[in-house]
Amino acid sequence: ARVTYSRQQRLAQTQAVSQQDLDTAATEMAVKQAQIGTIDAQIKRNQASLDTAKTNLDYTRIVAPMA
């Protein structure tokens, strides 16, 4: 999205592309950046859940009856 936006900016300077196309590229880039932020937050939440599960596993003790 960033590459497309940069290309559209260069073309817009020479008026080889419409302002609407440039705006569309900018919007798409903003959407992709927001999606990246959402995914990063999801990764952090999942990592925290994994860390909690590992900690809980450390507290686990299996006791077998004596034979």
Could you characterize the architecture of this molecule?
Helix 1 packs antiparallel against helix 2. This protein has one domain. With 67 residues, the protein is mostly helical. It is rod-shaped, with a radius of gyration of 25 Å. The model has no long low-confidence stretch (mean pLDDT 90). Helix content is 78%, strand content 0%. One of its GO terms (molecular function) is efflux transmembrane transporter activity. One of its GO terms (cellular component) is cell envelope. InterPro entries: MacA_alpha-hairpin_sf (IPR030190), MdtA-like_HH (IPR058624).
Biggest beta sheet attributes? none
Strand content: under 5%
DSSP summary: helix tally: 2
Q: Radius of gyration from the CA trace? A: 25 Å
**Helix share, percent:** over 70%
Distance between the termini: 66 Å
Overall shape: it is: rod-shaped
State the total count of DSSP E strands: 0
> What's the overall average pLDDT, rounded?
90
Query: Which structural class fits the helix and strand makeup?
Result: mainly alpha
Q: Unreliable runs, pLDDT <50, ≥5 residues? A: none
Give the ordered list of helices and strands: HH
Assembly context of the chains: single chain
Number of domains: 1
